[in-house]
């Protein structure tokens, strides 16, 4: 899945559980589960990083940095750091991205739309 959708799903889960510790724990599990669906990826790494950070920043400004939604979004997106930071791959093996189902499936357009709608909904809701 694309980074902004990982942020959105993690944020939605955090908002639902309303618990910081649960939100932090749910994030990586949601990331792994989401990546099991067949999906297209955005080839532009700068756009991926920028859209994910922008989504997270908007949530943090609106909801507060340590809101469960923000923590859930951050921890759901965090496993994608192993794509760009080699030191997060012990022995060169990725910890979170085994058995991914890229190619075909959910289009990048659909993922961006779902991410935007989810983050927009969470921005409109008060804590």
Characterization of this structure:
The chain is an all-alpha fold and 127 residues long. The protein has one domain (3-124). It has helices at residues 3-17, 20-34, 45-63, 68-77, 108-124. The protein starts with a helix and ends with a helix.
Overall pLDDT = 92
Helix and strand sequence:
HHHHH
SS-derived structural category: mainly alpha
- How many H/I helices? 5
Total domain units: 1
Could you outline the blueprint of secondary structure elements for this entry?
Elements: H1 3-17, H2 20-34, H3 45-63, H4 68-77, H5 108-124
Helix pairs in contact: 1-2, 1-3, 1-4, 1-5, 2-4, 3-4, 3-5
Kindly list the characteristics that best describe this protein:
127 residues, mainly alpha, 5 helices, 60% helix
What's the short version?
This protein is mainly α and 127 residues long. It has five helices and no strands.
